[in-house]
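Database export, one record per block. Field names are fixed; values are copied verbatim from the stored entry.
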Amino acid sequence: MSLPMNAPSWSQLAARFTLNDSPQHAELRMQCFLLIRDEKERVALAKLADYDGWTFPAETMKFNESPDEAVARVAKAWFDVPPTEVWLERVLSFPATSHEDNRWYLIFVYGAKAPADLKPTPDTEKLQYHALDAPAPKLAMSHADVWHALQQ
């Protein structure tokens, strides 16, 4: 069987795995988050036109993509001038908290220091730094779960 000419290659597919033998057909979603900290240790959050709420710079990982490759892609996708020094901080694993959501998340969280010339891409409406020990602003999707996990 051949694929249509416009079909994505395996390396372009999102890394989502469905467990079909469970009654709820649980989905494992692998994601990569980039926590960029300023000199006061606050983390950068972005406001995007397409999302209701603030987001960390993050992307769903692609099939067969390593976490290090994913964080490099996140940095390039979110910033015209990205951070250059990046490290793996932790790996989070948790179920989605929405009652209608059957996803389980595996999230690779990378840290970075904000360079003086950090510049988001034009699709970012606003970039702000927020203290992790303060109440979270309204966050989009699974980003609220990540915010909560980072405070523990």
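Remark 1: Residues 22-150 form a domain with the Nucleoside Triphosphate Pyrophosphohydrolase fold (CATH 3.90.79.10).
Remark 2: Confidence is low (pLDDT under 50) at residues 9-13.
End of record.
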